[in-house]
From TrEMBL, chain A:
Family: Belongs to the bacterial solute-binding protein 1 family.
Keywords: Periplasm, Signal, Transport
Phylogenetic classification of the source organism: Bacteria, Pseudomonadati, Pseudomonadota, Alphaproteobacteria, Hyphomicrobiales
GO annotation terms (biological process): maltodextrin transmembrane transport; maltose transport
Pfam families tied to this protein: SBP_bac_1
Protein's name according to its UniProt entry: Carbohydrate ABC transporter substrate-binding protein, CUT1 family
Keyword Protein biosynthesis attached: no
From TrEMBL, chain B:
Pfam families recorded: BPD_transp_1
Residue spans crossing the bilayer: 29-46, 85-115, 127-147, 178-201, 234-254, 287-306
Name of this chain's protein: Carbohydrate ABC transporter membrane protein 1, CUT1 family
Subcellular localization, as worded in the UniProt entry: Cell membrane
UniProt GO BP: transmembrane transport
Keywords (A to Z) from UniProt: Cell membrane, Membrane, Transmembrane, Transmembrane helix, Transport
Family, per entry: Belongs to the binding-protein-dependent transport system permease family.
Membrane topology: Multi-pass membrane protein
Main location: membrane
Organism annotation: Bradyrhizobium erythrophlei
ABC transmembrane type-1 domain residues: 86-303
TrEMBL record, chain C:
ABC transmembrane type-1 domain ranges (all copies): 71-263
Protein name in UniProt: Maltose/maltodextrin transport system permease protein MalG
Localization: Cell membrane
Membrane topology designation: Multi-pass membrane protein
Lineage: superkingdom: Bacteria
Annotated source species: Bradyrhizobium erythrophlei
Record's GO cellular component terms: plasma membrane
Transmembrane region(s): 12-31, 70-95, 107-127, 139-158, 183-206, 244-263
Amino acid sequence: MKLKPGSRLFAILLSGLLQSPDVAHAGDLVAPDRIGRLDAPKSFSFRVLTVHSNNNAQPKFAARMAALYEKYAHTHPDWRVNIQLMSLQIPQEHARLLEQARSGTAPDCSAVDSFEVPLFIRAGVLQPIDQYFTKEEIDDLFPFIRPIVSDAEGHIYAWWWTTDLRLLYRNMALVPDPPRTWQETKQAAMAAKRAAGPGLEGFLFNGGRNETTTVDFLPQFWAQGGKLVDERGTPVFGQEPNKTYLLNAIAFYRDLIQSGASPARVASISNYDDLTAASISGSAAMMVNGDWAMSQMRAAMKPETFAKWAVSMLPGPTADQRSTASGGWTFASFSKDPVKVKACMDLVREVYMGPATEVLERLPTRQSEFNSLPMFRTDFYLQIKQYLKLGQARPGLPIYTEISNRLQIAISEALAGTRTPEAAVDEAVDQVAKAAARYQ
Amino acid sequence: MTSAVKQGPRHQRSGGGRRGWRFDLDRHPVWWLFPLALLLTAFYLYPVLEVVRTSFTDATLLNSAYSYTLASYRSVLADSALPQIWLATVIFVAGSVIGQTTLGLLIALTLEAGFRRRLPGVRTVQVVVLATWIIPGVASAIIWQLLLSEANFGFFNAMLGLFSLSPVPWLSDAKVAIWSATLANIWRGTALSMILLYAGLKTISPGLYEAAAVDGATALQAFRYITLPRLRPALLINAVIVSVFSLNTFELVMPLTGGGPGRSTEVLALAAYNAVFHDFNLAQGSVLAVLMLLLNLAFTAVYWLTSRGLR
Amino acid sequence: MNSRARNEAIPIYLALALILLFFALPLFWLLSLSIRTPAEILIAEVRIVPHSPTLQNFVEVLGNQQFLGYLWNGVTLSVVGAACACVAAAPASYAFSRLKFPGKTQLLFAVLGFQMISPLVIMLPLYRYMHALGLTESHLGAALVYAAVAAPIATWTLKGSFDAIPEELEEAAMIDGCTRSQAFLRITLPIGLPGLASTFILTTMLGWSQFIVPFILLSQPDMLPISVGIFNFLGAYTGSATQLVAAASVLSLLPAVVIFLFFQKFVVGALTAGALKE
């Protein structure tokens, strides 16, 4: 029966309306806003990133998470988990969460972005969760994690369950060997441009005003041994030798632009998808991007094109000074009821610590998981595991977001040429010092 | 005769003032204003006063303690970036007002003319313009990031390339970026002006145009001597409302430029956002909000006086 | 006659074409995004029509159990909020338009001043206040704040439309024995219906894109309007779902356009011409 195009369209839309998503097949136990039976005697509220839940907009991930939730519901029949969703507008969401925590209306259990955790610890609204994890599990975490989620006495307040890192992606047809130093990177980019002709951008990275820029930039600073803050939390990036390291790293970026290795437009790139798009279009030879870009590229490129791309550790000033930046997500509990805290942490342990990372194809945070979880045993992931050991996280202090904002401004000004790097860095140092005075 | 008789007693009663209880409703504005006052006081007043009050403290998001001080005002007013922020804001707002008003008026006139002649397709155009305003902000940000992208597959630059024109650094050049952001804002907000000015056009009696046509006036003369003067109130309201919204908005600027390059597109609204969410500095954010309020009032006063002066 | 009508129509269609060029072109890109597969969502070439277009995104969005709820919540909150705002603003606008009293201009500016405070900074004190009133996590509380936020603009635009209605009509009625409020209800409002409809449309559309208020006051997913719920369709940069946001955005146009078209009929009311013929 041949339907008119309009009727066909209508039929498709109608089927979408009536289609029951896989989520519903999980029976009574799992719904978009609930895990567990409706009439379960006990309950706790759970705020989670949409993409990390059974509400993930892509049905395949939603279904997998629903299956994990169902397992938890079977093992904990007494509990009902009321799901709330958190979006990726990180500053607003965390401000709201903090305000609700102060009013006593925060959810019992919530996702917290890794670099916001220190803010919440300091505000005193989180419950310690040491007793819900074994010493082995805690020691198994990558080294950069403990300092961020702990207080001064070493108690843990959030479980960091997934992470990421930045890598150097290169098109091997244009850049056969992985550049290890700044000099090699620039030369490789220039060589690629000579070989490929006009229209090729040699090396792309985030240079606009966004957190992504700081995260891509900091490894160059850290690799030299630079520190943003000292042990007491006082900003020290304006003092020597850190200041010189900062200026060195900015000089590396500026050199890339002035030599033509990178286009001037990096000053307007502020999200990773733009970078991935450039690689897909074939207009970039190298880029800084996150581990997730690999699967985005695989999905979008023809297999023979995709085979030409490889990853390596970010370059540094010398071959031995290398670093990368890692972020990720945690779960923390706001509830004053220890029974609810335990139930929440059970959910974290059974669903998120391990299984969810496989199911969502994201990186786990415990070193042993790279060996135990099947998905992460490939060469690509074992490479990543080595890099994660060199990874650093952003400083575990509330003042970090202001430091990052000021650094973004400084980098942006230096790249756009509206200020000299020295002046830009001095301004950043001044402003952060003013802010720091208020953080005591 | 009859009306005089009727007017007499009524005149007496309302002239008394104290006596005519039932007519208080008519003469005293209090009761007319009461529902509005109740609504605003009950649900809007406290937060607004809080913001003003907070601007006189050193409150942060980090802890609940604070004290009263003028330090926040001093630090904002002494900030060396403030002139740049003012400039970006004024360009953004003035550009948006001019752009949205001009385009909105053009669209309203075209729609009016089209509807009057019952031309087909006019309603569709109206809905398309409306659609630009009611799609979620995040969608308009995604679209304009695509259009303004400076990659060689970025749409505007690719179109320029078709005509052998060189690409424009829409977002990476400090001098161009604010205009790109303003253009996106004009696209996004013109529908508001379209609605307001179209409503204004509808209040002008068609009889006036007919009379003018009889007198031999051209369309342009009709526009200048009939339409414009009678549109003045609507134009005033439109300018005020567009200014208010453009001042308060950062939903397009933030994804497009984040305030950069440097601080060239950091409008006041974005500066307030950064203060509150990156610096956790509630007091500074409140100061910036107060500054935005003052700038808004200043713009409004300018429009008001201009409108008066043109009369 | 026919050729004259055609001559007059040409410049109009020319203007319409230019308008469409500027406004519709970016929207075509939104449509383009909404029919792309994940493989093509990262735009790497200048193609409005993708290599393999698909309607699957629309299916997925409609299949999302909460999407229709987002749309419905958006409709209820914006319509109820706009209605309350108009009801509160109408008498006030009338007073600003007709009555003389000291401080009128200052009050007008003060009313507008409410609108001029950045909603972003209001967010946190608003939460604390509504929490103290016990009106968080409820549509009632949210709708009342929607109304309060829309009221200043409603007041100003309604005043504008009342200003355009000649006072003679009401004065004639009052000479005949009406009170002012009766004149308002029986004469001004019916004549001012187009302006009222315009104001209602305006405030409804503004409420449709209101984000901060529902974001801070509502946490339960089934209470969220589309302006907040749309963010649940965004992937992370670790897995973009821009195609779903685009499809959801296109679909979310429908209710708002329906409301607009329905009330726009009142804007073009024939009442104006009749009454003013005097």
